[in-house]
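Q: Sequence in, structure out?
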Amino acid sequence: MAVSAARVTRAPIQQSTRLLGLTQALRHVTLRAPCAGMVQGLELQSGDRVRRGQIVAQVINQEDLAAQAGLGVARKLDPASAAQLARTIKRFASDAGVPVVVPQAAVVAKRLVSNGQIVAYLDPLVDLIDPSSIYVQATVPIDQARRLKPGMMAEISSPLAPGEVFPARLQALAPSFDLNPATASARLAFLRSPPLAVAGIAVEVTIVTETVSQAVVIPKAALFESAGTRSYYVFVDQNQIARRTTIVPGVRQDDLVEVRSGLRPGQIVITSGGYALSDGLKVRATIEPDNGAASKLMAPAAQTGARRPVAKPGDQ
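A: Exactly. Output:
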């Protein structure tokens, strides 16, 4: 029987958990109306950066609004007297209104009112966030939560920054108190100033849960599972005879599987034929080149400049 095969080799391999999450902000600042009146000059949009001391709007107070309304009525009823009234209002009223001042550098999360809107004293106008407080809240399937420990290194990517990977660290896992929990919650902190400075951005999180620097590896196509015993086995080519060999698999990454026991480097495992293979079957194996796939397993971390060690809890 003609089959494909591959040599058992040694290579670094790592196991990762991929999660979905959202950016969130730990610290919010709310700009509020300094007086009751009408909002003017508010042009901020979500994502805009503001600096400390910046005037982002004015609120025309109710007294000025009432005076202007009275002047309009006077001009209709007694135009001659209205001119004197207009000069008086101009002398005492503040055309610019009461300024709305930003107390610290921040990013606009949401504008809560529109220009021309009437607001009461201390009504919220704009929700700001401190960009240095951005973190990621991710959802963890409960069957994967046991693999995660605070302190593990992670990488975060987002469609808003295609091709970029941002290093992060798993800070905490929050347990679920539901009777039948399906997920848990994980909080991750960026290792440098968060480039994603807006809350609510969807991100993908990759957490490296285990790394083996010199693992014995085989192609995933060579691995078989025995449904009855939940054990694993491969077929080894021994002098053109397929020999069923029980193994203990470990870390899996892409198309490779770590073998913790049962095989040694240099042996030949069969990668085609499926369940048509049997112990003692005569085979004619063609060894497939690996094209350097094993040596490139950890290349993504090198390409992004982000290292992927597995940190121990408490590492700083």
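The mean pLDDT is 84.
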